[in-house]
Amino acid sequence: MRPQWLEGLRVATAMTVPLVVGWVLRRPELVWAGLGGWLTMLSDPGGPYPTRAAAMGTFALMGALATFAGGLAGLTPWAAIPTLFTFAMICSLIRVYGDTAATIGVLALTMVCITEGSPAHLADSLVRAGLFVSGSLFAILLAVAFWPFRPYYPVRAAVATSWMAVGDVAAAAAKVASSPADAAKWESLVPLRRRARETLEDAREALAVARAGRHGETGRGFQLLVLYEILELLLGDLAALLEALRAGAERNEPLPPHAGEALADVSRALYAIAEAMVEEGPSEAVVAPRFDASLNPAVLFSRVADEIRQALHSVEALRGRGPGPRPHEALSFPEEAPSLRDAFAKGSTELHHALRVALVATLAQLLATALRLERSYWVTVTVVLVLQPHAIATVRRALQRAGGTVIGGLIAALIARHLREPLALGGVL
Asked: In degrees, to the nearest 5, what angle opens at C-alpha 310 toward C-alphas 155 and 333?
């Protein structure tokens, strides 16, 4: 089963279990626990467990505060409007801290919109906030303790397999290079090189599947991408090196001194990296080719050795023991940690976006209140979910939202027509 399906099933569990418990115990207020579990699962950024727990815990606190404040403020429009504006500004400005913070902000602001549309007095608002936190804690435990899964494990296995395949090429080349020069023996390496290329294609497909539809990127995802890119370069350099050695053999030239031993060192390093990727064990392989640096293949040996050293750093980062090498420049990490001060810089996209969200959401709330719309919070929720920092993204999100609403409404109508029991409805949800 693909990681996205597993994630969806776990999100559904976090939402449905509190709803079913509420139905069995005849406690309809447990819907707030289901809402907390659902939204907290959506705030899961992926990656190491401490990072995930911290992000989900942060949202649990922000969501509880939003639930409490929104319920109280919704009692009167004079409190609801400034509360919505304030939360919209704060929740939009924290976008400066990255994709995870942006998701947490949008979800917390959604809770403000929902609870302002369902106002409650002090005691009931406190109960709602407590139930929201309980649902959030259930979701966190489900994600990091009871039902953890590793969406990048298939990628680890695929990338590790490709490193093993390239290691097989180097090991076979070491045997050929250790024997007397014979051009025919180099032909035996062609199928191995073809197999290595096929495993790289499999690794690329696994990366694409794991990364599809994910908001943001995890550190492990970055390092697996780095290891894939390094191996792409390494295989090309190794192929060039073997072609150079083969050309020398065809001219009956002696191989560089210790070329076989150097290739054996390369193969051992590649095997060690592959094992460390899957088993997360120690990776202390050292590549020390021994040959005359003035010889022509020396440059290629040196490039292969450099790429292996970069891969060792990346494996250490994959195991949580350092930052690792930087990915390709288009995917590079920021040089400095962002701060909220950056959002108030001249021409800040985050500040413009926050003002736009706050103003439009407030106007939507005023309009819905003036028209006395039933469940008017859907108006503000739609505004919050649709508005994006850039116009093109906003238009795309609006079209997706409109289409999804129509399709979802039709499906909901069919479900409501054929299913009457609350337990059956909970199972479908």
From this structure: 75
Token pair listed for 313: 């750093």
- Best CA proximity match to 27, nearest among 127, 117, 107: 127
Q: Which residues contact 281 (CB under 8 A, 6 or more apart)?
A: 275
Q: How far apart are the first and last CA of the chain?
A: 20
- Are the C-beta atoms of 381 and 113 separated by less than 8 Å? yes
Is-contact 419 123, C-beta < 8 A? Answer: no
Between CA 143 and CA 234 the distance in angstroms is: 37
Cβ-based neighbours of 39, under 8 Å, separated by 6 or more: 59, 63, 107, 110, 111, 136
Tens-digit pLDDT profile for residues 263-312: 888 888 889 888 888 775 444 544 444 444 444 566 667 777 777 777 77
User: pTM of the predicted model, to two decimals?
Assistant: 0.67
Helix pair 31-42, 49-73: axis angle to 10 deg: 140
DSSP code of residue 146: I
pLDDT digits (tens, 9 = 90+) for 150-194: 667 788 889 999 999 999 999 998 888 877 556 667 778 888 999
Q: ∠ CA(380), CA(377), CA(37), 5° rounding?
A: 100
DSSP for 182-209? -HHHHTTHHHHHHHHHHHHHHHHHHHHH
